[in-house]
From TrEMBL:
Pfam families: HHH_3 (PF12836)
Designated name of the protein: ComEA-related DNA-binding/uptake protein
InterPro entries, alphabetized: Endo/Exo/Phosphatase_dom_1, Hlx-hairpin-Hlx_DNA-bd_motif, RuvA_2-like
GO MF term list: DNA binding
């Protein structure tokens, strides 16, 4: 068999492979329906980040109803772990929580809880919470600039928070269209 015929066979094989992929629709599938902010596997799950003095830090996706104690049992090897007095291990996990564990002496740990910023939550597919958003978080959303972000935060401070995403329409610079554009990024209440 000559080099030319070998190349011809390789090209035929490649053509067959591409044709079969196109036939099955893997390459030409048109996107239909509305844009989805979150993947379907995120339903029934809560995503948290564990960091600090733990052997297994990272991002964890756990079933709804999981507690802070669930995460500490998974990530901290030391069975004598005692959290700070103000941390309840029975606290239910909320999407986007950050559990920061710091070792303070032998067999003593301090656990602090904070929340991921909007950019990290968006990347991980974690729904945003209206009550936790700061100016820089609002700016991470499409169509929200620095001035509008500041107006949103000021409105929330003046009016005691948002009951629903619909309330954003009361903020100067937020239209019905803008609310619809960002609605999919927020958790439903």
């Amino acid at each position: 068999m000559t080099v030319r015929s070998q190349r011809f066979i390789v090209w035929l094989f490649a053509l067959f492979l591409v044709a079969s992929l196109l036939y099955k629709g893997h390459c030409l599938r048109a996107k239909t329906g509305p844009a989805v902010a979150f993947l379907s596997w995120s339903t029934g799950r809560v995503t948290v980040r564990v960091k600090g003095d733990v052997p297994r830090s990272g991002i964890y996706r756990l079933p709804d109803g999981s507690t802070v104690g669930t995460v500490t049992n998974m990530t901290i090897i030391d069975p004598a772990f005692l959290p700070a007095p103000d941390v309840n291990l029975q606290t239910l996990l909320k999407p986007g929580m950050i559990l920061d564990v710091k070792q303070k002496g032998l067999k003593k740990y301090v656990l602090s809880i904070s929340y991921m910023k909007a950019k990290e939550r968006l990347i991980l597919g974690v729904p945003l919470d209206l009550g936790l958003m700061e100016e820089d978080d609002w700016e991470a959303l499409p169509g929200i600039g620095p001035t509008t972000a500041k107006d949103i935060v000021n409105y929330r401070q003046d009016n005691g928070g948002f009951c629903s995403i619909e309330e954003l329409k009361s903020v100067k610079g937020i239209s019905e269209g803008k609310v619809e554009k960002i609605r999919g990024f927020f958790m439903s209440k």
